[in-house]
Amino acid sequence: MVLFDHVWKFNLLDVDLHIPKGTVLGVIGSSGSGKTTFLRLASGLLEPYSGHIRICGKDPVRSRKEISEEISVLFANVPVYSDKSTVMEGLLETKSIYGLSDEEFDKNLEHVSEMLSFRSMYGSKPKTLSLGQKRRAELGMAFLRNVSLYIFDEPCIGLDQNGKEAFKKLVYEKKEEGATLLVSSHDMEEIAGIADRILVLDEGKVFFYGSVEELHKRLIPMEVCTVEYSGRCPDISDIEIEKLTIEKNVMKIWYNSNHVSSGEVLERICETTTVESINVRRTGLGEIIKTAEAGRK
Length: 297
Description:
This protein has ten helices and 13 strands.
């Protein structure tokens, strides 16, 4: 369990929320919104000026030693391997620090190295690796231990699509095991693909906290219907829509799904023309946040 109650430091103010055990929380927001500060507070690297934080029932600053046994952290631009040591030497150091048994170390390392494809890097020093290779090895370090809470700040920087998919699978595995995961990213669609809940920070304050579905419903429940037709142009004049474009025989319709269902739109179109193809998509998370934030300014 992660609990924040009216904490602030640097650019965070009045953050009051509870993150249930076993949740994958996506933390998003523009640069300077407070994402990294939020994660540093959660990990005990920063102490709030007021209010309190509880991680797994403990104060992460006053119980730092105990908390360190229960959390695994990876921050963007903070190296986890020494440039003087090889990747394997760094992994063995982690084993020693946290008292992992030979069996646990070997089993976990075999799994994460296979998932993230960094076995070939064991004998390399970090400075000889590319950004993507280094990130795979860093994620391997973060997932090496079985803990209650994982904290990731921009974990997919430098990763190709295969690396991102491997990270996603490992996140799901840890969630299934009952762990809680906090993940910040500038890639909103990437976050939407793994998170149970979304925390949107805007200028240090909570702009939204809830599920992706709630975000769509409460902020901009917009859907886009693209119709390719033959024959006369579809007549949808009696349907409440937000925007309409027609180019050759392709019509695009934007509508608020709180007011109009996709079924109503499709039924009306099929009544008035011959439909060749139809595609309905929900507005992307990135589009939602940008539009909503713009509306507040």
